[in-house]
Task: structure prediction
Amino acid sequence: MDTIPKRKILSIPEKEKALDLLYQMLLIRRFEERSAELYTAQKIRGFLHLYIGEEAIAVGVMDGLEKDDAVLATYREHGHALARGMSPHSIMAEMYGKVEGCSRGRGGSMHLFDAALKFYGGNAIVGGHLPMAVGMALGNKMQGNDQISCCFFGEGAVAEGAFHESLNLAALWKLPILFVCENNMYAMGTALEISESEMEVYKKAGSYKIASELVDGMDVLAVQKAAKEAITYIRRSKNPFLLECRTYRFKAHSMFDAQLYRDKSEVEEWKKKGPIVTYKKRLEAAGLLDEKTLESMEARVSIEIEEAVQFAENGHWESLEDLTKFVYSS
Amino acid sequence: MIAKAEKIIETTYREAVRMAIREAMKKDERVFLMGEDVGRYGGCFAVSMGLLDEFGPERIRDTPLSESGFVGIGIGAALAGMKPIVEVMTVNFSLLALDQIMNNAATLLHMSGGLFNVPVVIRMATGGGKQLAAQHSHSLEGWYAHIPGLKVLTPFTLEDARGMLLAALEDPDPVLIFENTTLYNRKGILSAEATKVNIDKANIARNGKDISIFTYGIGVDKSISAAALLAEDGIEVEVIDLRVLRPLDTETILESIRKTHRGLIVDEGWRSGGISAEISARINENAFYDLDLPVQRLCGVEVPMPYAKHLETAAVPQVENIVERCIKMMNYERV
Result:
């Protein structure tokens, strides 16, 4: 596969922002770790797809979006939901199935939604949300506003027809959409090399005449900068853009996956290049992070998450009488 | 006070649909039409002829052959505040977009706990009878009527062809409208002024006391013709134009059964597990003791639509079949 072009050494943003990026990644990491524990304890049921290892992408991209932009993601979307500003409380309660959850317990881990934050899921059909994201961009264009759509999906979605139809239509109709492909090289248990004749996702964009870039998804600053440039481009030119972020998921596809399809040694190699461990080193080297600051950050994260768990634990089950609600609007 | 004379026009089903699209687009900037060949071609069935000139290519939007893509785009545009009318050329091609229709349009409101409704209207041509064979001739309205979250409309009258689309555009939830291709040329009269109609009630197309026929779309036409023939033999058939397959107007269905005690469902779709089975079950559950004989069904024969004319004709209920079955019903003959 292509090596990721090395960007010029990026300057670290000023301290508050620099530390905030770390905080956001830590929040996602610890939230996911806690969710895994709660899943094992059977508090969370169904499917649980952890974002561990990929945090830099959600955090880096979301940083460049405005509050009126629309965000669509996959079933591995806890990190995106948190980075977008959803509270760990509403997400945890949703995974517990409580009515205080963001989707009233109707959706679960794979279907997190938030209207105020324009977070449109939480979509569990691989590739299924891409046409909707393009449609939202069309709606924005027709209404003449400045908003863009941001659509996250994995490299597995690239095999679905919906990916191709969506890219073609976005380019044809010149629509303001950012496609973010989180290429973690495995679609469930299927490696990219046994499913795509052309493995370079960003190159596929070229065949639809869509501008694209390949970026190191483990580097939050690289992602942040690339996303910001892409978003500026989209808003200015009203054309789509595809950002391919190379990353790796440190955990299995979901809690059920025995990971028979990849070597443990590969996982260990990638962990050394993980987004949090590498960013911490950079901050330390720049004198922005010390033991004390990190400890206090972890403590804050821990409190936030425990409060979220308590909120979920104390939540309520929706009344059975309401079972057939929310099928139609009235 | 002298009542203002209502201006009446003579028109066709096709033109009635076009009227609705025009009216809606004139009144509301958010409404737009999107689909294959709706613009430059004038619409595969000429429904949107002339609209491109009037409204321009942004709002009469030709799409590439990407059913999944453009139906999903319609859903997204609806989420973003527009009022799209997505035209899928025929129901046969809609299968490519089934994931978008079912897993997105029908399901978003529920999965999000009521946060996001999807006000998209999807129009599709349906039905056979033109020797277009198996991949162009099916009637899958009943399939779609299975899915909670969707509304499924099957306009027969010209007033419904026009008014249902207007009502659908005001509905906050996804609405599918099925236009039987044989109906497009049907002539009739309409008031010049377009008004919306209800999209939750069946209509008594013809009153009768002996047999209730429950049907929709082209079936209404055939049943009314059959009823005219049966009347010559003194059999008075009540024809119920279902108009809406989801939600089914169970009340009107049961009222009719309580009156006639004999029920026949006419459905161009296949028998097994079709909408006819659903209607039959509801009558069974709610009006069993009002029946003089089991509910009867005349449905599409369980074969993919054949090409040869005589085979195609034999594959769906025709007027003669309806007449024959009604006579048998009056004589309590086992079928």
Q: What stands out?
A: Chain B touches chain A through 41 residues (CB under 8 Å). Chain B has two domains: 8-191, 203-330.
